[in-house]
Amino acid sequence: MSVRRRVFARVRRRRAQAALGARAEFAGRVSSELALDLPDEDLGEDLEDCLDMYEPGSKPRCEELEYLYLVEEARDRIARGR
Q: What is the pTM of this model?
């Protein structure tokens, strides 16, 4: 492999690692905001699991709607990256 290709490969790897770090930081920030909005909830790291394991009817209807809305919105924000 030429020197030029090795240098470009190294640059691409560093950029990819930086992008992954930025995504993880953003996901952590969104999860922290969600934890502030829902302080009494035990939210796991994977919001998709929270939604899958949620049992409908386990909360009063208005709280249930708010909980589901906030968790889905946080999940979607993380997926969109903004």
A: 0.69
